[in-house]
Amino acid sequence: MEANVQSLGYLLKKEKLASLSTDQAQPELLLESLDPYPGFYDDYFIPTTARVQKPESVFMVIRNFNVCHEDDFIRITMHIRRDHLILFDAALSSIVLYNAPATAIRVNMQDYSQLSDIITHYKQAGIKFLSNKLVKPYHSLIKIRRFFDLEMMADGIFKDVDKEFTYYVRVPLFMTWDEFEKATIAIRNNYDYKTYDAAQAAIYNKTGIIELVRIYDRKADLSKLQSLQQKYSSEVNENNMQEVIK
User: Fold this and answer.
1) What letter does residue 50 receive in the DSSP assignment?
2) Its pTM surpasses 0.85
3) Looking at residues 14-39, what average pLDDT do you find?
4) Which of 31, 49, 227, 230 is the most exposed place for a label (fewest CB within 10 A)?
């Protein structure tokens, strides 16, 4: 990989979702992430008063949208930003809702008072949303398609240019989510460094897919990231050896 990487890819993580808490009722189904970085914002480490108060992400659940039309979605989003002067980031996402896969638009923005305007503009462009209903807190796997702008810190270690405190370590092989979750638990149980959140990520290049682990930590340093890279790579290789033995 080059020193600076710009590529499409995806992020896979597990978070707690629930109906968006808002003073203004919306007719569309909107979910918010209640625990955006569960490995970092753990009650044992970060006091509740120190957590972010505004939603980290809002998921606007849509229906009958073919992800093959992602280019149309990107054009619509560009149009909304340019013509209506609304500052927000949007990405197509897959979530689990009522034990079934669902498609959503993940929105990040500073001023969520403009969320209704964004929804209106998407609807005018032909995107349809599920109707609002109360969704109690539950855990969902979330897969977000996004553009990555990464700056290399060391071999296989990258910093996210657009997102603070966010880093990526390269691993040699793919892990399923269950394997990744077990690996993360094993690493935490056998390592003093625990105050970070981990998720899976991947980016595309001309040879295929590059596997990454996303690390969120406000106090990460290169030494810690290199150690995590080594530990996740060891877990990947161990899982691969077990598969060969089978």
Assistant:
1) G
2) yes
3) 87
4) 49
